[in-house]
Amino acid sequence: MTSQSTAPGPRASRREWTGLAVLALPTLLLSLDMSVLYLALPHLSEGLDASATQQLWIMDIYSFMIAGFLVTMGTLGDRIGRRRLLMIGGTAFAVASVLAAYSTSAEMLIATRALLGVAGATLMPSTLSLIGTMFRDQHQRGVAIAVWMTCFMVGMTVGPLVGGVLLQNFWWGSAFLLGVPVMVLLLAMAPALLPEFRDEPAGRIDLASVALALATVLPVVYGLKELAHGGWHAGPALAVVAGLAFGVFFCRRQTRLDDPLLDLELFRSRRFSTALCMNFGGAIVMAGTFLLISQYLQLVAGLSPLRAGLATIPVNVAMAISSMLTPQLARRFRPAVVSAGGFAIAALGLLVVALAAGRYGLVTLLVGFALASVGIAAPSALGVNLIVGAAPPTKAGAASGMSETSGELGVALGVATLGSIAAAFYGAQVSVPAGVPAVAADAARESLPGAVVTAGGLPEPLAAALLGSARDAFTGGLAITAVVGAVVLTAVAVVSGVMFRHLRSYGDETAAESAEDTEPVDTATPA
Q: Up-side HSE of residue 285: CA atoms within 13 Å toward CB?
């Protein structure tokens, strides 16, 4: 492995920028699909008579399959062509969306959601790796990635509004049909606007590695989600351990293959490995914090789900603006400054959340959360650009798959770990008044939602006392968790600042980087 030049690549033309709009379509759709389903769940559960367990599988199977197949699909795109894989995935997503919309049972919907997850796993790494192919200039690639990330945030913002309109006027299946016109438009425009690119010399996909990748990621994500939902249990913990063990076998197999599913040589690039870990750490903190703040808005502040979603719109808008400004910041300042500064701002925002919880009111808490979100958006956009830029074009799909997988794992781990910290504090602090039946008291001690349900069946004085104690305990847990998150982000700020200190700003990208940052040599040509 030799050092790669950082001289600017060719500038993108109008065709590439128009193609970026096509690549934004599946990104926007995936975030819309995710946010709309939360609103549709009560309606589809009633229509299909889904049990509580089936509802969880309807929600979770999609993310399980995406997480499990991201690395495989990223590498598959490198082998068969990224545009081809994107169109195959788009077709599969449209067909699975129709099947999901017209599901006649909960089991059928779970199966179609699994198909949607596999199809979705083809879309994200394909779009991101195509951006890396189309935008070789570092600054332009940063702008394109910022647009790509902003589309995801826009989908999360307008999702509750679109979902509300659909569910008010149509049946629950209409939420899934959103994907059909978007995918048709993608399939119609992609051949004319998107280039094809594949690694011609690469061999066949190693099916044993695919199986090991699934055996690594699926048990880990499942175990973390179960620990987050139900607290500490031996089964989910063993699933995580088993997944990590399979991960060891997976890595060992990759080192022995001539054409590995995941080229571990990518991790020799300090830029790649640091950016991957940086985004993983950010996902852990922000996912766990977002979950707790969502519960706070509804169960402590008393907002309806729709009003809670509307309350977070300014936060999403602020994140989008921060992402769009990142390329300009990276053009003026070194990556070390942008990453460390962004994480420091995010840590400050979480400290504001910790101080505001239960003390200064809802508005201050949302301001702190917005500050944290603005701070995290800049290093996240920068990190994705560094990950894609660190890999040669032949490995861009695999690098994109790793980037997305680290985010999925970070979200699952953040919900599990930070949620567990908050739950532990809640359980230690909540006080159940005398006179509450034993079973109901246990449910109230387990979680704030359990306390709310329990209070609904109690006389007014007991209900008020229980809810007051439970909300105070939950608010305290949120504050503790925000402080922990601030500490983690401060550590990430220091590490990223040190590890990126040798990288130049986008505006000085013609200067040679330190020889310490070893990166792969590009050996492929566009198809």
A: 31
